[in-house]
Design a protein that fits this description.
By secondary structure, this protein is α+β, with helices and mostly antiparallel strands. The protein has one domain (2-246): CNF1/YfiH-like putative cysteine hydrolases (4-Layer Sandwich), CATH 3.60.140. The protein has five helices and 15 strands. The strands form three sheets. A six-stranded mixed β-sheet has the order 1-2-3-15-7-4, covered by helices on one side. A hairpin with a 2-residue loop joins strand 12 (184-187) and strand 13. Bound molecules: zinc ion. The site of zinc ion (ZN) has 6 residues, from loops.
Length: 252
């Protein structure tokens, strides 16, 4: 289930599914990514507040250059940039990672056994390319992650109420899961799809337990007062962000 908490009196939302990691989604109040001149002062302040909340140096708070690709990389202290990257895996305690969204689906993955996490950016392109399962596959290869240990948090996204797609996009999404029936509807001649649901189903098809996936109820277009929507705002440069930092495991 999702909840609101406050960083310097400004809201972020988070899921109670993964208390083992520090994670949250920023809102309009806590924006850290926008090209709009009028927002730069707020961004500077929010970045400071968030870094201080996470107890992390600004230089260690990193974000890849997202391009709607299906490229997955591992955050590494030796690298300072991640070009053409739409999923970043985090296995160290020194860094925190964030990715930016305005309608696309944020996926936070966490392997509770190996204490490894990831954030992926799944718009329709990333969802069609199965970036969620691909991120998990790299975790499986590098850390021996297993589906039964995986927890998945699906963040605020444009929902089925507001997300119509063309037939070509629908067909690409349809080919990624066994049965798309619960995740689309047609209204007159338009097809509406549930991107959050399709991403959830991709993880279920991998063997992740239904109860280990938490889906945010918010639609970024309907709840445009809280979040940014590329569609509703006709190409805004502002983004809300998904943020992840690992906690050191206490000895049991
Ligand atoms: Zn909506």
């Amino acid at each position: 289930m999702f909840h609101v908490k406050f960083i310097n009196k400004k809201s972020v939302i988070y899921s109670d599914l993964i208390p083992e990691v520090e994670h949250f989604f920023t809102t309009r109040e806590t924006v850290i990514r926008s090209q709009e001149e009028s927002m730069q002062e707020a961004i500077k302040e929010n970045l400071e507040d968030i870094c201080s909340y996470l107890s992390i140096d600004k230089m260690k708070f990193i974000s890849p250059n997202q391009t709607h690709s299906d490229n997955v990389r591992i955050a590494n202290n030796a690298l300072d940039s991640y070009p053409n990257t739409d999923a970043l895996i985090l296995d160290n305690y020194d860094q925190a990672v964030y990715l930016n969204f305005a309608d696309c689906t944020p996926l936070i993955l966490y392997d509770k056994k190996h204490n490894v996490g990831a954030i992926a950016h799944a718009g329709w392109r990333g969802t069609a390319a199965q970036i969620g399962p691909k991120t998990f596959e790299l975790m499986q290869e590098k850390y021996l992650s297993q589906p039964e240990d995986l927890l998945v948090v699906i963040g605020p996204t444009i929902a089925i109420c507001c997300y119509s797609v063309g037939e070509d996009v629908f067909n690409k999404l349809n080919s990624t899961i066994n049965d798309i029936t619960p995740y689309y509807t047609t209204v007159y001649d338009k097809i509406y799809v549930d991107l959050k649901g399709i991403n959830k189903q991709q993880f279920i098809d991998l063997g992740v337990k239904r109860n280990n996936i938490d889906v945010c109820p918010y639609c970024t277009s309907c709840n445009n007062d809280m979040f940014f929507s590329y569609r509703k705002e006709q190409g805004t440069t502002s983004r809300h962000s998904a943020i992840l930092k690992l906690k050191k495991k206490t000895i049991e």
